[in-house]
Amino acid sequence: MDALLAAPDRRTDQGARDYALLLFLYNSGARADEVAKLTIGRLRLTEPASVRILGKGNKTRVCPLWPKTSSVLTRLVAGRDISDVVFLGRTNQPMTRFGIHRIVTYYARLTTKSFVAMKDKRISPHSIRHTTAVHLLRAGVDINTIRAWLGHVSLDTTNIYAEVDLEMKAKALASVDISGLPVASHRATALPSLMAFLKQL
């Protein structure tokens, strides 16, 4: 995410807009179509800053905004009407979800030139949404809060992120060399039992 957010040239109007878009996607975990329909009137840019996102089934959820997100959005929407959509294209027409997808994939390709680790990754608005969920989980946010944050109807959908993060943690633990300890387990056989143990926590 750091590499992706560093990619736009924020000295230009388009680069500043693209940076605001990428940062908002990461902060909110919103779907591309939710971002495309977002109007200025749904932003609260004074402290405590937040956004009311209109999601699936016309359900509204409120997400807090980081001070940095609030700051760049304040500059982006300055002097515009509250009924305007937040993110406009080059012709000052509302962006579509396809336009948002195109911007994300463009900067993902640009980033691979300097950040080799992203070369084989398929980066999209949905993968930023996924990253938001996993980072919230790793920060200690409970799974029900993440479900509400992302606008998931079912907790089962959100649990996918917990399982992915759990597997990554288990693999990291299993890769630790414990051969110097008095009682050692072989790393390859330790992973399944470690996964089972972590799921009980």
Description:
The chain has helices at residues 2-6, 13-28, 32-36, 67-77, 97-112, 125-138, 143-150, 155-174, 187-200, and strands spanning 43-44, 50-54, 60-64. The chain is mainly alpha-helical. It has a domain at 2-122: hpI Integrase, Chain A (Orthogonal Bundle), CATH 1.10.443. Strands 1-2-3 form a 3-stranded antiparallel sheet, with helices on one face. A hairpin with a 5-residue loop joins β1 (43-44) and β2 (50-54). α2 crosses α4 (67-77), α6 crosses α8 and α7 crosses α8 (155-174). The radius of gyration is 20 Å and the shape is globular. The two termini are 29 Å apart. The relative contact order is 0.12. The model is unreliable at 184-188 (pLDDT under 50).
**CATH topology (level 3) name of the domain at 2-122:** hpI Integrase, Chain A
Secondary-structure-based class equals mainly alpha
Order of helices and strands: HHHEEEHHHHHH
- Poorly predicted runs are 184-188
Q: Within the largest sheet, what's the order of strands?
A: 1-2-3
Compute the CA-based radius of gyration.
20 Å
Output the number of helix runs. Answer: 9
GO molecular function: DNA binding
InterPro entries: DNA_brk_join_enz, Integrase-like_cat_sf, Integrase_catalytic, Tyrosine_recombinase_XerCD
Protein name: Putative integrase/recombinase
Pfam family, one: Phage_integrase
